[in-house]
Design goal:
The chain is built from five helices and nine strands; from the N terminus they run βααβββββββαβαα. It has 204 residues and is an alpha/beta fold. It has a single domain, classed as Trna Endonuclease, Chain: A, domain 1 (3-Layer(aba) Sandwich), CATH 3.40.1350.
Length: 204
């Protein structure tokens, strides 16, 4: 991603896929699961670590990938929320039993259209004061014309718009753009991660 003030080795607006770029030493999902594990132990210090469930973030489906991206941003100090533009259904039906003992339903289902802009991205983020919009695309899924229009509006306003196809691509972009440090004693960029985890081979 590029802006007028900061350059990155990733092309603006392009789909982020880990297989499209040179491999890095650290697996993004393993970093995420390690972050989630450390956070879980901090939240429940009264429980022995071996009794806590190990986090298992994945990316096999669009929903899993979305959850992984949101979790990573929150665990590294950013703000993230999922955006829904599909609307919702209100159930006005009522079920009752008639005199013959049969169950009957009366009423209807009401569809309430979503109020979000058509083509809105799947995830909205704020990281280090920067506004980011992320569209999750798995497999052969492609942007609609409304999504392309939304991307153009975001970028025209100075925001960052990403098309994320796998977690590794997103993780590499994140480290490349922000050179992010998660705390005073932990640097989760791929260059320095192994300094805090001596057994680096177990994380690759």
């Amino acid at each position: 991603m590029t802006t007028n003030t900061q350059k990155s080795r990733f092309k603006a607006g392009s789909a982020l896929n880990g297989t499209d770029h040179p491999p890095r030493a650290i697996s993004g999902l393993k970093v995420l699961n390690s972050l989630a594990w450390e956070n879980l132990k901090r939240r429940y210090p009264e429980i022995r670590p071996e009794l806590l469930p190990r986090p298992k973030y994945r990316e096999r489906t669009a929903n899993q990938l979305t959850q992984s991206v949101i979790a990573f941003i929150k665990l590294t100090g950013g703000q993230a929320e999922r955006i829904s533009v599909s609307g919702r259904t209100i159930d006005h039906r009522q079920t009752f039993t008639d005199v013959l003992g049969h169950q009957r339903s009366i009423g209807t289902l009401q569809w309430i259209p979503g109020t979000m802009t058509r083509g809105s991205a799947d995830v909205s983020l704020i990281v280090q004061g920067r506004s980011l919009k992320i569209e999750i695309k798995i497999g052969r899924d492609r942007q609609s014309e409304h999504q392309k229009k939304y991307q153009a509006e975001v970028e025209k306003a100075g925001g960052i718009y990403l098309i994320v196809k796998d977690f590794q691509g997103f993780y590499d972009w994140y480290n490349d753009y922000f050179k992010h440090k998660s705390g005073p004693e932990q640097d989760y960029t791929s260059q320095n991660y192994g300094e805090h985890f001596p057994d680096k081979s177990s994380l690759t």
